[in-house]
Amino acid sequence: LQVFDDEGKNVTPHPLFQPDPNTAVPRQEKLFKTPKLCFSTYSDLQNPAQREKTKSVDFGLANSVEPCKEGAVCCPGFAGEEAALTEAELEQRVDIYLSETDTLWMLDLPTAVVSTEAEEAVRVLERNKIYVEICNAKIDSEYFEEKMVQTISGAVKTKEVQCETITVAEKGMTVTAWDLDNSLDASGTEPPKTEEPTDTAEKSSKSPTAGEHGQAVAVPSARESAVPARSHEDRECHSEAILTSENLKQDLVVMERILMENIFQPKLAVYRQIPILIEPDVASGTEREEEEDEKEKKDKKKQEETSLRPPASSGLKQSPAEAAAPGLEQLWSYRCDLTSGHSVSSMAWNKVNPDLLAVGYRELVSQGQKEGLACCWSLKNPMWPERIFRCEHGVTAVDFSLASPNLLAVGTADGRVAVYDVRSRSDAALLDSSASLNKHTGPVWQLRWVQEARGATGGDRRERLMCISGDGRMTQWFIQQRLDCFDLMTIKRTQRGKKKLPGEKGRKSEAPISQQAAGMCFDFHPEDTDIFLAGTEEGHIHRCSCSGKEQILGTYRGHKGPVYKVAWNPSSTDMFLSCSADWSILLWHQDSHTPLLTFTSVTAFVHDIKWAPKSAFIFAAVNERRVEVWDLSVSIFDPVLSCAASPKGNLSSILFAKNAECLLLGDSCGQVGVWHLHNLAAPST
């Protein structure tokens, strides 16, 4: 069949199956001729009148449509011969059925375009708008990046490994002292040659040098004299190498730690508040029982004496009625030959390791100034410092850093500030202010690492090093490639106005030699580190601010001599203490410029004061000879404890222990005594 349109064009679809032309096609016989039906045009098939005139014929084996003359559609007949149709054949009805085969989809590409007149056009436009908004919102985001990625999912693989069981074997051997000696000889020298005693005796008896009565005479042989002299030198070098090896030093340190723990175990147990270990007794049963009874009696007697009165070295005399009164008991002292002849100027605990103590030593003599020391002591060895840093001048102040606990800041009497690394065994300073153009010209009386209150929070808070000096400057140091500073405040002298008597003429005031007053001490507020107190040589205390135009917020006048120390109360942050060379201790409130209380017990300089870390009412002070512990909840007139804790020298510094009920007292003899406090009141905030 062929299909033509109205214009006569052939629009017959091509068959999907193309037969192979090489295949032989069987020829049809003439017996199977089929009459051919012709139509003038394809539209005649659609005309019912013409279709009625058409004669129904049997197409038989006809399987194709061929064009006839004058554009008619015809069906082939028998062997292509045309036969004339009779009237009966023309009147015969012919039925033709046109049908479609099943559609076979070879490729399907869904369209990505929708007509604007379609029903889903509104929904598609809405989705496109939302997608554009999401893409625009992620343009500036650093977590969004647009990329085209083709992900290939690899095939899952399973691996199994099997191995044999690992066998463990132990091997050992016995080594004697002779094996060790032979190994040392084999390392660089030849083993000694030995001879049989019988042969030696025979040779000596037969030799012409034998003595009378057959006695053998010792004659050195040539083999013995040929022993190289360098063997002795090699042994000495080997011994020196052993003595200077790092392994031996480390082993000696461990041995030293063990010995110190055994010697100071009872004292360290009291400091740590743990039970005291009792050495095992190897005596017989009866002797052991007798010794235990005697020991118990001695312990009871000692406890009674301790509870009734303090130790003899403390200088206190108590009656049995005062058994519950506070007392001091000395545990040990940090001292050695190196620190004797120096005076303890300052002490500071490490912020991370509470067992590490830094002590500064100085010595001022009439002929000149002795060198200073900064030592780091550990509880593991109270008899020798772990680190020793030597300075050309006396050390006046020390303090550990909190951000970097291995850094120790040291101030000296010549105005030098140095930072040491305690992890290093070298005594050279990590940073030094000697090359700074803004270095101090007077003694650095106090320095301290202070954390900034503003800015970063938590562990990121910055830390600054603050110093006060005798040249009247309060400086802040910054650590970079070198150590340098800038002036935070300059302390100026204040003129005291005197009342004029009636009829007295005014006199011209004499100009001071220096316009700046020497700074002696400072302390930062425990809650707001922008506020600090500064004590001067004039006896004044200035409350200052690190920020703002007005640095001095107020001045407290109450002392008649240099102010040696000021200390904020860590619990009640509105109160602070001050001590001076005028023999007095004053209690202040920051809103009042007159002291609230005055404490005076002896006529001596008060060198140092410290608040108890766990109580708002207890503080300790040291004067030249005695240590005093005041409890404001018990009495404001007399200290609850006062004793002479240094019989040889004058007390110069005081410090509370962080994790024990103990006091540390430094004196002018170069020793730091550790004292245990008894029967103090319960901590109160």
Outline the fold blueprint:
Elements: E1 38-39, H1 43-46, H2 48-53, E2 66-67, E3 73-74, H3 87-91, H4 121-137, H5 177-188, H6 197-206, H7 222-225, H8 230-243, H9 246-263, H10 265-272, H11 285-308, E4 327-334, E5 343-349, E6 356-362, E7 372-378, E8 387-391, E9 395-400, E10 407-412, E11 417-421, E12 431-432, E13 444-451, E14 463-469, E15 473-479, E16 483-490, E17 519-524, E18 531-536, E19 540-545, E20 552-557, E21 563-568, E22 575-580, E23 585-589, E24 597-599, E25 606-611, E26 618-623, E27 627-631, E28 641-643, E29 651-656, E30 662-667, E31 672-678
Antiparallel strand pairs: 1-3, 2-3, 4-31, 5-6, 6-7, 7-8, 9-10, 10-11, 11-12, 13-14, 14-15, 15-16, 17-18, 18-19, 19-20, 21-22, 22-23, 23-24, 25-26, 26-27, 27-28, 29-30, 30-31
